[in-house]
Amino acid sequence: MDKRLYEAWESCVKCGICRSVCPVFKEEKTEPFVARGHITLLSELIKGNIDFSEETAKDYLYKCLLCTTCVESCPNNSETDTIVEIARHEVIRRHGLPTYKKVMSKVLKSRELMDFAFKSASVFSPVFSKSQSKPRDGIKLRTSLAGIEKDRLLPPISKQTFLDKYKDDRKRAKIALFPGCLINYTYTSIGDSLVEILKKLRIDFTVPKKQLCCGAPIYFAGNFEDARYLAKKNIDLFLNLDVEYILVLEPTCASMIKNDYPKLFMYFEDKKWEDRARELSRKILDPVKFLHDKTDALNSLKRLNIKTTYHDPCHLKRAQKIKDEPRAFLKKATDFVEMKKADRCCGNGGTFSIDYRDVSLKIAKRKVKNIEETHAQYLVTGCSACIMQLADILNQEKKDIKVRHTLEIINMAMGGKSEG
Amino acid sequence: MNRRALHKIKNIFKNRCLTDKLSRVQYSYDATQKMYLPDVVVIAENTQEISQLMKIANRYKIPVVARGWGSGFTGGALNIEGGICLSLEKMDKVIELDLDNMMVWVETGMVNYDLQEYVKPYGLFFPPDPSSWKFSTIGGNIAENAGGPRAVKYGVMKDWVKGLEIVLADGTIMKTGSKNIKDVAGYDLTSLIVGSEGTLAIITKALLRLFPLPETKKTMQIAFDNMSKAAAFVNKILLNGIIPVAIEFVDKDAIKTVKDATGVDLPDADAILIVEVDGSKNQVEEDAAKIERLTKNESSVMLFRIAKDEKEADDIWFARRSISPTLKRIADGKLNEDIVVPRSKLAEMISKLQEISKKYGLPIVNFGHAGDGNIHVNIMYHTDNKDETKRAFKAMDDVFNECIKLGGSITGEHGVGITKQDYLEKQIGKEQIELLRRIKRAFDPNNIINPHKMRL
Asked: What stretches of B99-241 adopt beta strand conformation (E)?
C-alpha cells in the first residue's frame, strides 16, 4: 500500500464536515455517499473486512462526482478524490469493467476508432437525432440510446474535427493546443474562438495531430492500466515538442495531465514516468489563464452589451485554482453579475450524468434558481462538459439563457465572429 | 438479532432497513473515531414508524440508538452492543414556522445551519451555534445540550427548546412543553430530555424559540503575549458592561497547528482572543470602541484588529473552527476534553493546564469559549508509544481533578457518552448517579434506548 494513500485516509477524523458540502450527499442524504463514508469503505476493503460485489461497489463508489468540494473544505486536506479513484481501481481489479466502459476504453485509446465513431455519428446524426431550434445548443435523440435519454440535450456533432481543421505547425510555435475530445468532436466553436484570439494576438501555435484522449474518463472509472497507456503516448508526444506551454482547453483534461498523470505513475511506482509526467505537468496551462497572465488580451476587449454570470467548473476552480481570471475578462467586457454558489458542481461528472441521470439532474437543477436570480442573458463557464450539462437543464426548465465558454465571450469582445 | 423481530422491522422500513455489512459499517462510527457495528440500520421518515419500531425493540429487548449526522465527540450515537441504529438524517424538515410566537417546529434530523438559513429571510436566527453547526443536527444538539461561541450572550440549547415530540421506549408518542413563554405545569420534562444524551427517549421533533437577527455585528481579533493575561482580559471586557456575542480563545499550539494546516495568516502570539459583538449599529460601534480602548491599556496585547467586512470576519472564524480537525498533525492520538470552569477561574485553570503539560512532557492544545469558561483541552500523544499513551491518560486524570477542584465540570458541550463516563461519578457523586438510573428506569424499564452511555 502506498504510504501516501495510507496517510490520506488516516488524515480523516470523521468529523463530518464533508457532509455539509457534498452535492451528491445533499440529494442522497445517507452516509455511503459522502467522503467520510468512501474513506471508511476503502479502509475496510483493503483490510479485508468487507468484500465489494460489483453492484454495491457501483452504488457506493461510482456515485461520486469527484468534484473535490470535500477536499477543499476538509481542514485536514484528506484527499477523498484520490481515495475514491483507488477504490474504483481495486473494484475493477477484482471484478472487471462493465461492458460499456470496456468499449469506451477501447474507443478512447485509438484516434482512428474515435474519428470513425464520431464521423459516423455525424453522418447518421439526422437519422437518430434532431437539432434544436438553435443548433449551437445541441441535438436530441429520437429514441433513448445506450443509457442516454431522448430528452437529453446533447452537444452538436461537428462535421470536421478540431484536429483536422488546424495545422500541426511546430516550427515557430511556442504553444501547443490540446482541445480535449468534447471540443475536438462537438463544441469545435470553442476551439475556433481560441484560434481566432491567438491569431489576433499574433501568437503562433501548433495542433499536434497524434494527441490522444487524456484518459480522464478511463482513469475516473478506475481503469488505471488503459489510462497509463494513454498518458505515456501523450507524454511522449508533448515532451518531444519544443514548446513553452500546452494550452489544454478542457479543465478536466488539464487537471488529468497536470495532477493525475504523476499520481497515476506513482501508484505503479514507476519513477521514470512519474518524473516525465511532472515535467509535462509544468507546461500545462488553461487558455484563459494564459491569455490573462501572458498576453495583452484583457486590454484588447471591446465592451459587449450583454449581461453575464459565471459558473466555476470543478476542475478549473479546485483542481487548478483558477477563478479570478475568467471573471476579470467578463467584468471588463460585459455586465457581470456573480451568482450564488457559483462554484457548486453542476452535477455532470462525466459518466456520472449517464449512470445517475436522476441525481445529476437534481444537482443541476439547484443551479437554475441561482442563475435566474442574476437575470443574466449568458451563463458563461470554462468547461464544455459543464456547458453540456447546464444547457441541458436550462433547456429542460425552458429558460432562455445562452450557455457559452469564456473563450467565446472573449473572442466576441475582440471582434470575433463567434455566434452569440 | 431475533429473526422474527428483524422480519417485522423489515416490513416497516422496507428498503430503508439495511442489514448488509457495508451499510452497517457506514453507521458504525462518529467523530470519536471508535467503531461499533450495529446489527441493523433503519432510516426513518416519520414518527409513526419509529413508534412501531420501538414497540418491537421493547418487546424483544433490542437496543436502539438514534443517530443524526454522527458528528459527536463522545460516542453518543454509537451502538456499543449492536442492536438498531435509528438514523434520523432524512427527517429534516420544518413542520411549522410560527412568526407571531417567534417559534418553529422542526424534525430533529434537520441540520442546525439549515435551520439558520431557513429562518434568515424572516429576519430571525436560532442562537445556539455549536462549532459543528454546519454538520450537526438539531436532535444531536438537543441530546447533548449543545452550546457554541454565542453561549456567552444567548445561552445554550436548553434556553431555546420550548417543547419536544418524543417516542418512549414502549412506542408511546408524546409531546412535552408548549408555546407558552410561561408554563410551569408539572415537571419540566423538556428540560430533562435536553442534555439526556438520547438515553430517555427518541427525540423526533422540536419546538424552538427564535430571536430577531441583530442589526449588525463586529468581529475582533486580539493577540496576547501571555495566555493567562488573555484569560483575565475576558473578565475585563464583561466588567466594562459589554456582553459580547462570543469570546473565543486559541492558544499558541493551536495557532501553530492551524497555520501549518490551512496557511491562514495568524499572529505569532501566546494566545488569541476572538471577540464578536452584535446588536444595533450604534451599540456595536460603541462596544468595539470600548474594547479597543481596553486593549490599549493592556500591556500584553500585541495586536488588535477589527474585521472590515464579512469575508475578514469569516477568515477570523475559519481559523478558530478549523483547529479541532487539524490537531492530528501534532500527533495521531488526542484526548479531547471540553471541560468548563466558572469564568472567574479561567486564568487559574489555564495555568494548571500549562503545568500539567510540563509535568507529563506532552503538548496540551487549548482553545475554546473563554466567555463561558469552556475550554477544549487536547492532550496530544502518539498511539504507538506506550509510555506517551500512559502519560496522556494520567494527564487527563489531573485535568479533570483540577477542574472539579475549581468547581468546574468534566463536560461543557460534548456530553459524557462513553468517553467520560469514568469521571461522571467523581463530579456528581454516587447518590446522583443512582437517581439518574432511577429516572432512566422510569422512562425505559428495559434499558433499550441508547444503553451504556453515562454508565446508565
From this structure: 103-107, 124-125, 161-167, 173-177, 202-209, 211-212, 216-224
CA B430 remoteness from chain centre: 25
Q: Does A110 lie at the interface with B, CB-CB under 8 angstroms? A: no
Mutation site, B135, B141, B322, B324, interface A, largest A CB count within 10 A: B135
Residue-by-residue DSSP string for B105-138: EEETTSBHHHHHHHHGGGTEE-----TTTTS-BH
What's the pLDDT at B4? 96
- B64-67 vs B40-43, strand pairing mode: unpaired
Please give the grid coordinates belonging to residue A248.
Answer: 489544454
To the nearest whole percent, how much of chain A has pLDDT over 70?
A: 91
Tell me if B325 and A74 make a contact (CB, 8 A cut-off): yes
CA distance B65 to B80: 9
CB atoms B70 and A10 under 8 Å: no
- ipTM score for this prediction: 0.87
CA–CA distance, B86 with B67 (Å, rounded to integer): 6
pLDDT at position B322 over 70: yes
Angle among Cα B365, B371, B375 to the nearest 5 degrees reads 25
Query: Tens digits of per-residue pLDDT, B382-409?
Result: 988 999 999 999 999 999 999 999 999 9
Interface test with B, best of A7, A9, A20, A26 (most B CBs within 10 A): A20
Dist CA B40 CA B23 (whole Å):
9
Which residues, at least 6 apart from B78, have a Cβ–Cβ distance to it below 8 Å?
A: B28, B29, B30, B32, B34, B35, B36, B65, B418
Greatest Cα pair distance, chain B, in angstroms, is: 73
- Contact between chains at B22 and A30 (C-beta distance less than 8 A): no
Residue of A12, A13, A53, A58 for testing the chain B interface, max B β-carbons within 10 Å: A13
b (16+ CB within 10 A) / e for A79-94: bbbbbbbbbbbbbbee
Cα angle B384-B385-B386, degrees, rounded to a multiple of 5: 110
* Sheet of A245-248, strands arranged across: A205-206, A175-178, A245-248, A284-285
Query: What is the distance between the alpha carbons of residues B381 and B364, in angstroms, rounded to a whole number?
Result: 9
Cβ–Cβ below 8 Å for A16 and B21: no
Contact in structure between B373 and B323 (CB atoms under 8 Å): no
Return the closest-CA partner of residue B443 out of B230, B172, B89. Answer: B172
- Tell whether B116 lies on the interface with A, counting CB pairs under 8 A: no
- What is the arithmetic mean of pLDDT over A131-151? 66
The nearest CA of chain B is from the CA of A49 a distance in Å of 9
Return the half-sphere exposure (C-beta side, CA atoms, 13 A cut-off) of residue A94. Answer: 15
The pTM of this model reads 0.89
CA-based nearest residue in chain B for residue A40:
B26
Question: How far away is chain B from the Cα of A31, in angstroms, using its nearest Cα?
Answer: 6
Q: Do A19 and B69 touch (CB under 8 A)?
A: yes
Closest CA to A182 of A167, A199, A206, A161: A161
| Contact (CB, 8 A) for A136 and A419 | yes
